[in-house]
Amino acid sequence: MDVHLEAALQSFNSRYSSEQACMETLIAMKWPSGFICPRCAHTRCSRLTSRRIPLFECGRCKHQTSALVGTMFEGTRLPLLKWFMALELFLLPDGISAMRLSQVIGVTYKTAWLMLHKIRHAALEFDARELLYGEVKVNSDQYGRNPSRCSVSHPYATAVTVACSVAESGELQQVKIRLVPHKRGGDERATRRDLTAFIDEHVDAGTSAVQLFPQAFRLYAPLRKVVREAWQSLKSTYGALGVKHLQAYLNEYTRRRWLRLSGTVETMRHKLLQICMAIPALPYRQLIEVQRKQPFAAVS
Ligand SMILES: [Zn+2]
């Protein structure tokens, strides 16, 4: 078993020993300063613990709710321990494949695939809310281009817009990588117009220090490196990825990179849980639908 995975499982087992421990963690995250009724904002409640998922009944309007309502965990039939373990393994330096996850936590491949896509979906929604600001650089690059084969064509290369905010120290902070719809193959790139559209959507309107790098021979080098690293990391974990789900995997990569920059394992874990608590789960049908709507679905 690989060392990262083993270490992650060991640290997991020392922290969470029961369903109840996981549930209490989520309850504390949902209501950090005590229960608040989502309907009438009353703060007194009675806790009904006869069920697997504890219900809280508002002392005034009698509305019943649980800590999982409106979160990624809502409606799940899986034990929370399995979810928590999946989140822990999602944070491994190169993530985890659905096949491996299914073996480690003892669920079917389909369940593992669905869990990972739910986590990715939460990461995507959260990412869309966090705009880049401060000093921002934007490259027109290609994903999937083998750097050791400079002269040959790259039929699987895909045009991407990749951008980051840069700290005063020069270090890259948050990074976003977005596929440019319908532009595949070694010669395809995002145009200046594509980059502008990206900026409208992903860069804070108050940011004045945006620098564009639309030309292939003059890209911002640190960002090029991130795209190459993303390619290598995703390739090592998932093998060859079809373009159908590629955007979801790229979001996973950039989100993990950003979480891992956030400091200790403890902070990283806490932030990922916050994301899962903030973003409602997509039902299976819709999740599949979202995947289909990715820009390249028709050709993959
Ligand atoms: Zn109430």
UniProtKB/TrEMBL annotation:
Protein name: Transposase zinc-ribbon domain-containing protein
Domain Transposase zinc-ribbon: residue ranges: 18-64
Pfam name, any one: Zn_ribbon_IS1595
Lineage top rank: taxon: Bacteria
InterPro entries in the cross-refs: Transposase_Zn_ribbon
Organism: Paenibacillus campinasensis
